[in-house]
Specification:
There is one protein chain. With 93 residues, this protein is of the alpha+beta class. The chain has a single domain, classed as GIY-YIG endonuclease, CATH 3.40.1440.10. It contains four helices and three strands; from the N terminus they run ββααβαα. It has a three-stranded antiparallel sheet, with helices on both faces. It is globular. The relative contact order is 0.24.
């Protein structure tokens, strides 16, 4: 099974959200359609800006926790490396 850590943003670029899942397509669909109550729904975080793939859930969770501790600028640099145009990567997953 594959696991993913992902970063979501919104059109106003006001917030970022980092999550982990074993089904990226389904999880992003849920965010886009506001199925889940909470931070992503409140701030309209529905654009997949970045993701990484892992074979092991423990490593994915370690990475998620690491990224959550990073500064906003460091997270933006990571996104820029994979996705310099900040396009919604949901269609390409």
């Amino acid at each position: 099974m594959q696991y993913y850590i992902y970063i979501l943003g919104n059109s106003s670029n006001s917030s970022l959200y980092i999550g982990v899942t074993n089904n990226l397509q389904k999880r992003i669909y849920e965010h886009k359609h506001k199925v889940i109550e909470g931070f992503t729904k409140k701030y309209n975080l529905n654009q997949l800006l970045y993701y990484e793939t892992y074979e092991d859930i423990e490593n994915a969770i370690i990475r998620e926790k690491q990224l959550k501790k990073w500064s906003r600028n460091k997270k933006e640099e990571l996104i820029k490396q994979m996705n310099p145009e900040r396009e919604d990567l949901y269609c390409s997953t």
